[in-house]
Amino acid sequence: ARAWRGLIEEYRDRLPVTDATPVVTLLEGGTPLLPAGRLSQLTGCEVFLKVEGANPTGSFKDRGMTVAISKAAEDGAKAVICASTGNTSASAAAYAVRAGMTCAVLVPAGKIAMGKLAQALVHGARLLQVDGNFDDCLELAQKLAVDYPVALVNSVNKYRLQGQKTAAFEIVDALGDAPDVHCLPVGNAGNISAYWMGYKEYAAADVASKTPRMLGFQASGAAPFVKGEPVLKPQTIATAIRIGNPASWDLAVAARDESGGAIASVTDRQILAAYRLLAREEGVFVEPASAASVAGLLQASEQGGVTPGTRVVCTVTGNGLKDPDWAISGAPAPTTIKVDAHSAASELGLT
Ligand code: F0G
């Protein structure tokens, strides 16, 4: 056994890097593909969770960022910028530190989770809260990158999706073939596009014998793909996917249609139920947006949209510690006791 070297070194021959590319890495990737017993029982499928919260900054964004920042470094960039619902900014801020670059982030004011805000700040990013939503932030970031000396590292940067496709490689490498169905949350729609790219690439190279059906899930208040057009005022408690005008629209539609899949919506209530189920019955703490993949699988299973006996992978995109409010609210307040074994035992119902 040898140590994991980060995804650029692990998948170098399938990524747009050369010997001239300075590799900027936090040793991202190599995340767990975890058998999910309870979800398998509930659906009759063989369900796995791709636990992307195990990446260095706690989300799948690190996969794209290692490639995007390495290529920016190769091009001589001194500064990067991104718009974000929180995870992209956390990742960009950390990788910019590794590269010795400055990082500017534009986030929707009051609409990003506290843990993600903390990450951008602790890594020294210049953080601007924009009086608008994510879609406004992205438009602004794109304008700034055109007019000023700063490289854009949102997923409209083609290197981001190249890095993110490696999650599909890891899944095939672990299972020995592609799964039958792949479920994931959809926001700006980069990730579903990247997975599809990865699965297609492995099938074309005969590493996998097939490609999965891609099932994407949006929050019902922020579901432009379901509506068939942009949503002007997206609303959901899953702030990571509170996006009304996805940048990778055409790529995501192609992933959906070429794979024989679908993009559907789940309510915030379904998202929170899946969030609690993951924590209490699978031992996996994710952020609310991540639970959309699992809420979607449960919904598809109820509607007969997934065949029992098939192999399903759900990507859970981000770590639950980023947004702890949803874990704390709804839980009973902890009891305070004296330093006394008897009171502890009686509170715990052991007596
Ligand atoms: N899950 C999480 C935890 C996310 O942070 C995001 C996107 C998604 C799912 C959706 O992925 O955009 O590729 O369809 N977060 C971006 C951000 C928008 O700024 O961190 P997508």
From TrEMBL:
Keywords: Amino-acid biosynthesis, Lyase, Pyridoxal phosphate, Threonine biosynthesis. Residues 24-318 form the Tryptophan synthase beta chain-like PALP domain. It comes from the Bacteria. One of its GO terms (biological process) is L-serine catabolic process. There is a cross-link at residue 143 (Isoglutamyl lysine isopeptide (Lys-Gln) (interchain with Q-Cter in protein Pup)). The modification N6-(pyridoxal phosphate)lysine is found at residue 61. Pyridoxal 5'-phosphate binds at residues 87, 187-191, 317. The keyword tRNA processing does not apply. Its EC number is 4.2.3.1. Pathway: Amino-acid biosynthesis; L-threonine biosynthesis; L-threonine from L-aspartate: step 5/5. It catalyses: O-phospho-L-homoserine + H2O = L-threonine + phosphate. GO terms for molecular function: L-serine ammonia-lyase activity; pyridoxal phosphate binding; threonine deaminase activity; threonine synthase activity. It is an enzyme of class 4 (lyase). Its cofactor is pyridoxal 5'-phosphate. The keyword DNA damage does not apply. InterPro entries: Ser/Thr_Dehydratase (IPR050147), Ser/Thr_deHydtase_PyrdxlP-BS (IPR000634), Thr_synthase-like (IPR004450), Thr_Synthase_bac/arc (IPR026260), TrpB-like_PALP (IPR001926), TrpB-like_PALP_sf (IPR036052). Belongs to the threonine synthase family. Catalyzes the gamma-elimination of phosphate from L-phosphohomoserine and the beta-addition of water to produce L-threonine. NCBIfam families: thrC. This is Threonine synthase.
